[in-house]
Each structure stands twice: as C-alpha cells, then as structure tokens.
Amino acid sequence: MLQALKESVEYLKKKIGNFEPEVGIVLGTGLGGLVKEIAIEHSIMYSSIPNFPISTLEFHSGKLIFGTLKGKKVVAMQGRLHYYEGYSMQQITFPIRVLKALGIKHLFVSNAAGSLNAEFKKGDLMIISDHINLQPESPLRGLNDSELGPRFPDMSQPYQKSLIEAGLQIAKSENITCHKGIYVAVTGPNLETKAEYKYLRIIGGDAVGMSTVPEVIVANHMGLPVFAISVLTDEGFPEDLQPFNLEEILATAAIAEPKMTSILSQLISSL
Q: Where would one find the signal peptide in this protein (predicted)?
C-alpha cells in the first residue's frame, strides 16, 4: 500500500503544485453541491490518478476538487466509493489515506441515509455521534503498517465531540432541524426489509446507510479528527414502509443540501 500511496501522492503533488489542503471533505449521494461554494484551483478525475478506484455510480462525479472554502484550503471528494460496487475495503478507503498524505488535518464526511428514528423525519439532518458497523470486513484487516497507524486503533470517540457540539450550535442558530444520532453501516446495495429496519432500530440505530464507516475507521487509524453528517432522505419505519424510489431520494437530498452545506461551511471556517 505504501508504494501505491506514494505514486498517487506524487502524481497529485505534480498537478497541484504548492497547494496544501488543510481539510478533506467526502461528499455523499446527491450532496455534491458544496463544490459550488469552493473557489476551485484544481479539478482532477479519479480515473487519471494512479491506483485510485473509480466510482461506478452515475450520480457520483468521481473528481478530486482542490480549492478554498471560507478561507480554508480544502480537497473534496466529489463522489465516494462503496463496498457494494465490488471494491475491497482497502480500495474504498485508499483515497482517505491519500488525502492525509497530502496534508489534511480534519476530515468532513457527508452521506444520504434512511431514518430509523420516528422523531427524525425525511429531509432532516443528523450529525453522527457514533456508529454501529454491520459491514462484513474492516479496512484494517491484514498486515498493519505502523507508518500509517497502530495495529489496534482506539474507537472510543470516532467523531470529534467539539465539532459535533459546534455543528449542533450552527444548526440551531440557522434554524435548521438537525439531530444527533447513531449511524448503522450495512453492505447494500439492496434496501432493508421491514424486519431488518426493526432490528436496526432495536440495536440502537437512528439512521442506516451503506458508506461512511470504513472512511471513519481509516481516519481514526491515522489520527484524523472526523465530523460526519447525514441527510435523511427516506424513512425506514416498519409500520409504514414505502417502496424505494431513487428519484425521490435524490430530490430530498437536493432540497436538504443547502442546509448541510451551511453547517459544513461554517464549521470549516471556524477551524
């Protein structure tokens, strides 16, 4: 991995010159609009970066965006990777290791998720305070390289508490409905059955999705503070479960996105 990482970083440094990003941002399904707030200096397709996996989803752009957001130098992943696309956990999280090697000091992650909590409605936001990982493999499985992080990384606080509280305060000041809750990561790409939604709620989940946790594990492995936020695009309430509709989910994400963008922009500005 170290050789592949070196090749990717060397290629990107030649492309971006002396640009040194301070903040990494992962943009989830339907949430690429934050890029409009970035004064872009460089835009690089994943497909041109050595060893970089390519997003297979038509609604994920697959670009690294380098620029300035609220006075901070940032690099944004416009399009993320998922286990259900057929990649290994190491491939999914390889971009996070590249961003760390480029110099980022914080990682901000967004996603679209389904609500499990009847008090959290479609279109609301949820700042992730903790997670339950039901995906079948850890991105840290295999030989550990101490240059990247410890063999047994601590996960007692995977999401930085100070950023969680600051994000909630921003939401309150902007009159944005934003909850704090626990995210459950599943494999996908199929949605859950009624019984599965019920189970996920019983074990403590407030929202469910198919991403985020692998990136967060690797960020913690490398000592990167993390802030993560979900746009709740559908509701997994067994008593009134509606059929999955991708168009509706993307439309809900588009409506909620400006609220998420406001929170992330202000948080990044405050660093």
A: none
